[in-house]
Specification:
Structural class: alpha/beta
Number of strands: 7
Shape: globular
Strand order of the largest sheet: 3-2-1-4-5-6-7
CATH architecture of the largest domain: 3-Layer(aba) Sandwich
Distance between the termini: 35 Å
Helix content: 40-55%
Number of helices: 8
Length: 258
C-alpha cells in the first residue's frame, strides 16, 4: 500500500520495539525520513544496525530536557518536521487503587501523558513551518473505557484524548491536524505481561484471562502493531488531510475492559 508520504520528515517516540518499531519501519518503507528514540540501549543499537541512515538516540521521555535536546537535534538532522508520533508508553501497575505507590502512579503519567506534552512543545515550531503537518498521539481503548486495577494507565490515556481534542482546535489555523489512536488488545510482550499480571492477581490461568478479554470484542483477535502503523501513516498522508480532533479506535470493536 502506497500512502504517498515519501520524504515526509517524521519523529517517533519510543521506536525500538512493538508498535513504535512498526511505525518506524512503516514510514521508512514508504520513503519517509525518520528520527526516533528509545530508553532501551539494546533497541537503539539494533535500530542503528538495521537502519544505518536512521537518526536514533537513547532518551528517557520522562525527562523534559532530554526530550527537548533530542527533538532539536532530530529536526535539524531531518531538515524540518511534518509528522510527530507520540508513541511512548508503559503499562503501569496492576493493583487496587489503595495499593498503588505514588512513584508508580507518577511514572505512568510521566511516560504516557507528560512525555507527549514535552514532544509537542519541542516540535511545535517546526510543525508550524511545515504547512502540512500532523500529530498522532497514542491513547488506548483504556482512553474511552474504565479499566479497573489499571487506574494510572487509564487516567493517562483519557488525558491523551483531552490533549488531542484541545490541540486540534488550537492548531487548526496552523493547518496542523491532531488525532489520537486507541489500540485495543495488541499482540506483543506488553499485552502478555498485562494479562499475566491479571491472571496472577486473580489466581486464574492466562488462557482464561485472555479468553475473557476477547469476549468483550467483536473481532476476537489481536490487533497487530502494523495495524496501528498503517492508521498513523494514513493520517499523515494526503488522504488524511481533513481528519483532525478524532479519537480513532483500532480495537476490533472493544466494548469494555475488565
Amino acid at each position: 500500500m502506497d500512502f504517498d508520504i515519501k520524504n515526509k520528515r517524521v519523529v517517533v517516540s519510543a521506536g525500538g520495539s512493538g508498535i513504535g518499531r512498526a511505525i518506524v519501519e512503516g514510514f521508512i518503507a514508504q520513503g519517509a525520513q525518520v528520527a526516533t528514540c528509545d530508553i532501551n540501549p539494546d533497541f537503539v543499537s539494533d535500530l542503528k544496525a538495521s537502519f544505518p541512515k536512521l537518526f536514533v538516540r537513547q532518551v528517557d521521555v520522562a525527562n523534559k530536557t532530554a526530550v527537548s535536546e533530542f527533538c532539536d537535534d532530530a529536526i535539524r538532522a531531518l531538515g524540518g518536521l511534518d509528522c510527530l508520533v507520540n508513541n511512548a508508553g508503559i503499562a503501569g501497575p496492576t493493583l487496587p487503587i489503595e495499593d498503588i505507590p505514588q512513584d508508580s502512579w507518577q511514572a505512568c503519567l510521566d511516560v504516557c501523558l507528560n512525555a507527549q506534552y514535552y514532544f509537542i512543545q519541542s516540535c511545535i515550531a517546526a510543525l508550524r513551518a511545515s504547512g502540512d503537518a500532523s500529530i498522532a498521539n497514542l491513547s488506548s481503548a483504556a482512553g474511552k473505557h474504565g479499566f479497573a486495577y489499571r487506574t494510572p494507565y487509564a487516567a493517562a490515556k483519557w488525558g491523551v484524548i483531552g490533549l488531542t481534542k484541545s490541540l486540534a482546535i488550537e492548531l487548526g489555523d496552523d493547518k496542523i491536524r491532531v488525532n489520537a489512536i486507541l489500540p485495543g488488545l495488541v499482540s506483543g510482550e506488553r499485552q502478555r505481561n498485562v494479562l499475566t499480571a491479571k491472571a496472577q492477581r486473580l489466581g486464574r490461568s492466562y488462557q482464561e484471562i485472555e479468553a475473557e478479554a476477547f469476549s468483550y470484542t467483536s473481532i476476537k483477535d489481536y490487533v497487530s502493531p502494523q495495524d496501528i502503523a498503517d492508521q498513523i501513516m494514513y493520517l499523515a498522508s494526503p488522504a488524511g488531510r481533513r481528519i483532525s480532533g478524532q479519537a480513532i479506535a483500532v480495537d476490533g470493536d472493544t466494548k469494555m475492559l475488565a
